[in-house]
Amino acid sequence: MTILVTGGAGYIGSHTVRALVELGRDVVVLDTLELGIRSRLGSTPLVEGDIRDERLVEKTVRKYGVTDVIHFAAYKAVGESMEQPLRYWSNNVAGTISLVHSLLANGVERLVFSSSAAVYGNPEHVPVTEEAPLRPESVYAETKSTMESFLTSCDAIGLRSVSLRYFNAAGASDDAVIGEDWSHSQNLVPRVMKAMLGASGPLQVFGNDYPTQDGTCIRDYIHVVDLADAHIKALDYLATGGKSIACNVGTGMGTSVLEIIDMAEQVSGRKVPYEFAPRRAGDPTTVFADPTLVRAILGWKATRDLRDIVGSAWEWHSHSYKPA
Ligand code: UD1
């Protein structure tokens, strides 16, 4: 019983691979290393290649005796997806179809899919439940919701899947060995760290005139190690006969941009240099999850709080950053 992790050398992928290895599960990673980093994998076997290479997927499934898949491999930058739609549709959508085709042809019938809360767009109600309409507002989000529909339809041909709609993943491993590489990330927490360590100019806070308690946007930040655990629970759910589902993976707690900055200052004892900038196009005001379904179906809930998230990110970034 081996788990194939596509995109396993990426940020969330590598934390999940570690969690699987710690549990003694057999794992093989398929990653192009275009954005993934080999050293995150330790001694876990890596097949370097593309999910669209059906022969390679077939060879990997046979060689390692793959029974289950966690599929992370995808592009994920919202702004870039609007400028380079072909790359996104090709990798995220055509890539997933090709992967599923080779998996089914080789008898693999269980898949955990890396989806996103971005499928909800700007939700009318918070907390967001899975019943909220899917209104993707970027090519990136569109590719994720399209893949969810594709996977649902594959139920009829024997593929059972769990689509995990991640809220805002952040943080690093407890031992500060792996974390989120800020050179490829435009997300808030790595940018706060970058500004705090003097590796960039001041953090731009996008908008301070939102209708929230401090005027900045509210999101549901979830520790990457908790998120990794949700994938393991999803694998176990499928292995015990669970039906295909899509569920939120969030904490149910909303945190503003200024609260993140405040926490970063508390855990580091430093000041975060920041300035207010105009709103970023397309940013919803407030998004946080209703995590009832994931708790009921997968038995998962977040175990780490905001201090753990920001504190682990600080530990990792402050140890791995070497000023020039
Ligand atoms: C992120 C992801 C999206 C994912 C979603 C899950 C990106 C760009 N977006 O969206 O793919 O599906 O989580 O819910 O990867 N902010 C600043 N200054 C910055 C960066 C961010 O003020 O330099 C603010 C943003 O305006 C936002 C909050 O911080 O209010 C979080 O931003 P970000 O980390 O980019 O995540 P989301 O936009 O929520």
Task: Give structural notes.
With 324 residues, this protein is α/β, with parallel strands linked by helices. It folds into 2 domains: 2-170 and 221-249, Rossmann fold (3-Layer(aba) Sandwich), CATH 3.40.50; 182-219 and 252-289 and 304-320, UDP-galactose 4-epimerase, domain 1 (Alpha-Beta Complex). Helices cover 39% and strands 18% of the residues. It is built from 10 helices and 13 strands. It has helices at 11-22, 54-64, 78-83, 85-105, 139-154, 188-196, 224-239, 257-268, 292-298, 306-320; strands at residues 2-6, 26-31, 46-48, 66-71, 110-116, 160-166, 168-170, 203-206, 218-219, 221-223, 245-249, 255-256, 274-277. It has a 7-stranded parallel β-sheet with strand order 3-2-1-4-5-6-11, with helices on both faces. It has a two-stranded parallel ribbon with strand order 7-10. Strand 5, helix 5 and strand 6 form a beta-alpha-beta unit. The protein is globular. The protein starts with a strand and ends with a helix.
CATH fourth-tier homologous superfamily of the largest domain: NAD(P)-binding Rossmann-like Domain
- List low-pLDDT spans: none
Give the CA-CA distance, first to last residue: 45 Å
Strand percentage: 15-25%
Q: Strand tally, please?
A: 13
With strands numbered from the N-terminus, the spatial order across the biggest sheet is: 3-2-1-4-5-6-11
Average of per-residue pLDDT values? 97
For this structure, what is the CATH class of the largest domain? Alpha Beta
CATH-level-2 architecture of the largest domain: 3-Layer(aba) Sandwich
> How many domains is the backbone divided into?
2
Q: What integer value in Å does the Rg equal? A: 19 Å
Residues in helix, %: 25-40%
